[in-house]
Fold:
Amino acid sequence: MSFTGKATYSAGASLPELVEDIGDVVGIVSPYETPLLDHLGDPQRPATSTVHQWLEDQLLPNSDAIDDGSIGSPTNEANFDVVNGDRFRVGDQIQAEGSGEVIFVTGVAGNTLTVARGYGGTPTEAIADTQALRILGNAALEGDDAPTARFTNRVRQSNATQIFTAGVEVSGSQLAAKQAAIADELDYQKQERLRELARDLENCVINGVAPAADEQGSATVRRTMRGIIPSITTNVDDAGGAALTEDVLNANLRAVWEQSNGGVDTILVGGLQKRAINQFIASARGYDARNTRYRDMVSVYESDFGICRVVLSRWVPADTAVLLDSSRIDVLPLSGRSFHYKPLSADGDRDRGQVIGEYTLEMRNELAHGVIRNLAVS
Structure:
C-alpha cells in the first residue's frame, strides 16, 4: 500500500513547516590570498615610528667609464678622461670592457688619467668613449706611505607607515537572531574585513606609491608606503613588448648579480607571466604511455645567478616580472599596530568597531632587486 501521510514534498512550495537545510559553510569566491606576504613571512621586529628608517652602505666602486670624446682609433693614448677620477689611484691596473689589454695608471689629475698601455706585455687594443673600465686592483710600493683614506658614507633610507582600516557595525537584532551558517555575525564581519585589508596590504606592498611631499603625513595628507615596484630604480629592463623568455629573465638576473652581492631567490609574477615561465620547459617535456598526469608548471627556476621560487600574485601588473632578494625585504607593523579589532562605543542599538592595522615596507638595497616591464601580455 502506498504512503498516504504528509511528506516534505507535500508541504508546499515555501516549505513553511520545515527547518531550512543550509550548509554550515559560507562560500567566498572573491580573491583574498596573500602569496607574497606568506612567502616573506613575519618580520623579526616591528617599526617604531610612522617614518621608518634604515641604513644602507656599499663598498668603494671598482668600475667606471671613459668620458673622452677625443679618443679615436689609435691604440697608444697615454691620457684620457674618465667619469669619476676619484675612483682611481696611481698603481691601479685597469681593463676596458671587452678588451684583453691591461692598462697601468701612472698619474691621476682630476678626471684625467695618465697611463702605461699594454702593461705586462698584454696586446694593446683600441679604447672608445663611454667604454666601461674595471679596476683590477692597486699595487702599492714596498715601504711606501699609507695612501689617503677613502670611504663611503652610509645612506639613510625611509618609508612611511600606512594605516589600513575598515568599519564594522552590526545591529542588536542581527546579533540576537539565529543566522544560517554563522555562529556570531560580528565575528564574521571582523573576519571579512580582515581578509580585505590583508589583500589590500599585499597590493600596496607591491604597487604602493609614497606621496611626493609630506612623507610623514599631516591633517590633510594621508601617509602611504612606497611599494616594491616603485622602489626599484636601477635594474629596470624594458622588454619592449617582447615575450618573457629565459634570455630576457637571465639578462635581468645577471644585471642584479653584477650590481650587488644580492642573491635573487624570488620571481614575482602575475598569471600571464607565470604561464610564460611555464613555457620555458615546453620543448623539453616528454611523455610515454605510462604517464597519466600532464604537468605544466615551473615552481622553482634555477639559473647561474640563483635558485628562485616563482611566486604567483594577482596584484603584479600583467606586463611585469619582479626579481627579489627576499632576505632584504620585510613588511613591518608599527609596534602594537598589527591588524586587530578595536571596539567603539555604541551610540544606539548596535555594536560598532573597526579593524585596523599600520604597516610599512623595508626594502633594503634596491640594487639587489630587479624588474622587467613592458612584457608581452598576449
